[in-house]
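Worked example

This section walks through a single chain of length 233. The input is the sequence exactly as stored; nothing has been trimmed or padded.
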Amino acid sequence: MPSCFSFCSALVLVATTYVLTAVSAEKVTTCDSDRLNVHRLQCEQGVINVRRAFYGRSNSAVCAEGRPPQQVENTRCSRRGTVNTLRRRCNGKKTCVVNTDFFRNPDPCVGTFKYLQTTFTCLPATTVVACEETLAHLSCGSGKVIFVYGADYGRRDRTTCTFRRPARQIRNVECLRPTKIVQNRCNGQNSCTIRASNNVFGDPCGGTYKYLEVAYTCRCKMFFAYLTFQAHF
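Given that input, the structure is written out below as tokens.
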């Protein structure tokens, strides 16, 4: 049985190839319109990892059906920061829903019919949910450490953490606050406990009963050190 050290050494040597070939990428395209169009990313297994995201137009054939030529001829139209927005909202989740209306202001090219396109992979992960004022426990086996993909504090559905809660406390499902607090406290540790509380994460929606969602994986210490080193370059 190879040791964690030798296994991680091999991972570090082929890390770039591993990341690119371990999972196949999926591409989702949502045409924009005057109505609120839903851009939906979903992983049947694992959690979302956004690789690329684009709002605007880079191809005259995409989302062009029924559109006059002047609305699809500008193929140098893009909104800056789209990929960072999608990563903040979607990374570490099994399902992510975004309305294209979110990207319309400011309009990157008035008069051009635009679309939102995202390329993502599904990363294997452990998901932990802790209801408000309870504890979230993250742990790894011997010789491995926590690597948090993403965490959110708030509410995005009416089914999670609803036992004996009045309807008014679970009505708001547009209450999500991505947070790096879990990453900052838990990354690199063998185990970690953190309270799902307004005192820790702030209150993104007063009156709503919230929960903490965390997606993480366990890495050998050497591989985690490599990922941390890469993040600085």
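What to look for: Residues 9-22 have pLDDT under 50 and may be disordered.
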